[in-house]
């Protein structure tokens, strides 16, 4: 709903209430009018106009310029008609005009529709009509007209500020959505294409000959693609890259989140998914997987993202710890969170290396691991010392992991309703 919509709803109610007030004044002063029939005719016209245009002030789209001009014309006509139906003494005493405070609704319509400039213009017209009706610049008239002018200008200015804030918020939300989508695509690219290119480069250099030239070209493409990912100029990939078998026993470019949860308690439709089923395929000759005896349930989307982060951590073990390194995966189900620890016996990570890698465009840690955990409301911590291996602790709070699944379910229900 637009930020100004409550103002239109309030204006609709204001017109009805002020009409009832003006009718009450007309009935009360009926015997004091010089020409009461004229007052009754005008009030009938005002009532009919308010009833027929009730929906015109319900939104900015329905409230057109033509209607606003007509509405202001009805109000001004009532002000100028007052000296013809009422006596001069009552007018000199400052008795209300025929439309009374209903006139303010016409002015506020201009202010809400067009801002403070439209409100000031409409207020000036009403002020001129009131001066003509009184025939003099009486003090009470000036006070009332200043109140109308200040109120309309203030409300018009507030509406303009609200519209500008709404546009700024919408722009910020679009930027945030685009940034999240770019990070997601960058993670997918890192987990697939970049891993394959890096593998081709290493294997080509090891084989030599024409394969070495192919590896060199793959390395150049990897650098170019990493540059695109780091600068955000990434075209959404529509296909998964093929992955070659890895003799180390770790998954290659495949994203564990692409694998559907098995039937039963593990579901891929947003229902709880057993994280053990997604992490078990990582176990191999050089990867030891330790799990609880009971299912570790998370929403399918959160479980897939956490499993993908574990896969990215194991990819780093394969690339940086060497072929002879051993890795351990420990899955823990805490009361409020799920924790996965990936540890290896490699050479460790030198201090500052992760920051340097991110600056160079190597976003495996920044996007494939930290980015995924951040989106889930979790954390990723590295504990490493030179020569003592590396330990990565991935923690996902259960409460925050449920929110993406709930939002997805609500979105599906909304689409089904449409």
CATH superfamily of the largest domain: Histidine kinase-like ATPase, C-terminal domain
CATH topology of the largest domain: Heat Shock Protein 90
Helix percentage range: 55-70%
- Average residue pLDDT: 76
Characterize the overall form.
rod-shaped
Number of strands: 7
Please trace the helix and strand order, writing H or E for each element: HHHHHHHHEHEEHEEHHEEH
Q: What is the end-to-end distance?
A: 18 Å
CATH architecture of the largest domain: 2-Layer Sandwich
Task: Report the major sheet.
Answer: 5 strands, mixed
Order of strands, main sheet, comes to: 2-4-5-7-6
Radius of gyration (CA) equals: 36 Å
CATH class annotation of the largest domain: Alpha Beta
Poorly predicted parts: 232-260, 262-269
Number of helices: 13
| Number of spatially distinct domains | 2
What percentage of amino acids are in beta strands?
Answer: 5-15%
The structural class is: alpha+beta
Account of the protein in words:
- The chain is 61% helix and 9% strand.
- The longest helix is centred in the middle third of the chain and has 69 residues, at 139-207.
- The strands form 2 sheets. The protein has a 5-stranded mixed beta sheet with strand order 2-4-5-7-6.
- It has 2 domains: 5-170; 250-418, Histidine kinase-like ATPase, C-terminal domain (Heat Shock Protein 90).
- Helix 1 runs antiparallel to helix 2, helix 3 packs antiparallel against helix 5 and helix 6 packs antiparallel against helix 7.
- It contains 13 helices and 7 strands.
- Residues 232-260 and 262-269 have low confidence and may be disordered.
- With 418 residues, it is an alpha+beta fold.
